[in-house]
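Reply to dn_fold:

You asked what the input looked like. This is it:
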Amino acid sequence: MGFVTWVAIIAIVLVAIGLGVGVFFSGLIRGAEIVGERISESAVVREAQDFVEDRVDAGSSDRILVVTTDEATYDAGEPVTITVKNIGDRTLAFPDTSLGLEIVHAGSGQKYNVPSAKMITELAPGESKEITWDEEGAPAGDYIATVHTTPEEEDVSAQVRFMITG
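and this is what came back:
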């Protein structure tokens, strides 16, 4: 063993004797707990990223458009807030003020529309828009919300999944 190793060993022994063995080892254990917490924090971050990736359609037009909801699960009758964000580098045109939003019950295929004005609506790069669906009369289950650009434009679409509980 080298000189530095011996110095480190002697320092650890003197610290253990000076603090008391109990205090020394409780400090070591607390340090290990902190390291463990940091590992679980990164696991939580990883789990959150997986959650977002599962809810956002990964193949959505080369990631030009992102659609998210403020929650993954809603109670029956609770308004659903859907956010559409243009993360591309060009302005996108949509057929109406709800950005061509179509909501489908995944189990039955029943389609739901959000009231909107039939006018071309643009979303500039970096811009986002929130759309609220009141979900009145919609049964419990899994839903897919999809937005589409105007038919005249290259078809750009994106979707998000969410659940309504009864």
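Helices lie at 3-19, 21-55.
Hope that clears it up.
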